[in-house]
Fold this sequence. Notes:
- The chain is built from eleven helices and four strands; from the N terminus they run H-H-E-E-H-H-H-E-E-H-H-H-H-H-H.
- The chain is mainly alpha-helical.
- The strands form two sheets. Strands 1-2 form a two-stranded antiparallel ribbon. It has a two-stranded antiparallel ribbon with strand order 3-4.
- Strand 3 (108-111) and strand 4 (114-117) form a beta hairpin.
- Helix 7 packs parallel to helix 10.
Amino acid sequence: MKFLSEYVKAAPNRRVVLTIHQPSSYIWNLIDNIVLLTKSRLVYQGPRKEIETFFESTGYPTPDHYNPADHYVTAVNDEFSLHELSPEEWEKAFLQWSISRGRQNSSMRRVSSGYIFQSTSQINTNRAGAYKATVELTKRYFLNLFFNPGVLGTRVAMYFMLSLLVGILFWDLGDLTTFSSIQSRVAVLFYCVAFFVFMSIAVLPFTVIERATVEKEVRNGYYHPAIYQVKYSQLYVRFFFGTGINSLFILYLFIPFFGGFWDQVVTSYR
């Protein structure tokens, strides 16, 4: 919460929407504005410093040495003994209190379950360009790898073990000159191609995890979906190229293709 509070205050027009149930007194004092609901009814919406005034006006002031958040939730929740007013009565009390405090009806909007207050001022924001968005997405990608080393380590280990397995299956194939060795060489190439194709599917779980975040950022206009796709495509191409070179190096140590068969092919063309 302290980090979120500092993050909001670090730049203008920043907002953090937090859903929390019965926060501690410390967290309560870090919150600027409150939206209190009960049974989908709006009980209070506004600055935290004014919520006590509203509850005092309804006859439910916070007792001394009592956590305000606990008191407010207990007062409006019909599952506690302190609850005396119905959700509809709380909503009506808040509406009357808001009007008496000088809040104009133009700032309220009727919804199916009651009223909500909305700001009439427009907030102008500046979004990053394509280049900066690409840089930030790339930075976030490497930060994710840094904080989750198992993501990269698992892929590298799988590439290494499968390359080792294929190398053992076709050990010392380069020294063979029979017709079956030609078929074996084709099989090695097939295994390598299929191996890389199936391993590329390993990125899907991590893409699904990020999907909700990416959709939210795209809807908020942080970047175009094409930028995200291009950035991750070029990162994955580099990753698979690097792991592919390493895998081929391991295979070459086990399967020296430039053996007897290839020597005969080269000799026949001389």
